[in-house]
Specification:
Blueprint: H1 17-29, H2 45-50, E1 61-69, H3 79-84, E2 92-99, E3 121-129, H4 135-149, H5 189-192, H6 199-202
Antiparallel strand pairs: 1-3, 2-3
């Protein structure tokens, strides 16, 4: 039997923070008939950003890459299965798909720093580990997966019918590295909506 985890974070220093959190938990859990467990943790902001995604109390090292998906996931995406089921890799892999659309996409793309306003999903690919000596192994693996997924557009999610760039809060130095970004578009294009069909709007 699998499990579903809902994580909510907010600034504990804000007035009424605890009350708002409890109201949110109550609203989300309304009508849920299965047994639920609620865990509340308070910690400094920097510590919270460094903890591992399984919340085992460790400070981890990590690498993340993102992409917006405006439509149907193309056939090349099943390569993710090989990545997740690779028996030769004993690290932690993360593939998260965030739902988009509706009011997110109702905002004018030029109104905020987030220009991607026509996607149905945002993906986050990641890996995390604790030993600095393992940096190369884990980072290389994620880099190679990303390059394979977006091989048709130079190893990065250049805006086209299937992708719409990357999320600015997943900073990725590889977008500025010609070894991993052979698309011909600058590093900032995936972040700020500067795909070919958007150049005219941002000039």
């Amino acid at each position: 039997m699998g499990r579903i985890t809902l994580a909510a974070q907010l600034d504990g220093a804000e007035p009424g923070a605890r009350r708002r959190l409890e109201e949110y938990i109550t609203a989300v859990g309304a009508g849920v008939r299965t047994q639920c467990r609620v865990t509340r943790t308070t910690m400094p902001w920097l510590r919270a950003t460094q903890r591992d995604v399984e919340n085992r109390g460790q400070v981890t090292r990590s690498k993340s890459k993102g992409a917006y998906l405006p439509g149907r996931i193309p056939p090349r995406r099943p390569r993710l299965f090989r990545y997740l089921s690779d028996p030769g890799y004993d690290g932690h892999s993360t593939v998260v798909l965030f739902s988009y659309g509706r009011q997110v996409n109702a905002v004018d793309p030029a109104a905020t720093v987030v220009a991607q306003r026509d996607s149905v999903l945002k993906s986050c690919l990641g890996t995390y580990w604790t030993d600095p000596e393992d940096d190369e192994c884990h980072i290389r693996r994620l880099r190679e997966l990303y390059r394979e997924l977006y091989a048709e557009t130079g190893g990065v999610p250049v805006s086209d019918a299937h992708t719409d760039g990357s999320y600015i809060n997943y900073p990725d130095v590889d977008l500025a590295d010609a070894r991993w970004n052979t698309s011909g578009v600058p590093w900032h294009a995936p972040y700020f909506g500067l795909g070919e069909h958007r150049y005219s709007r941002w000039r």
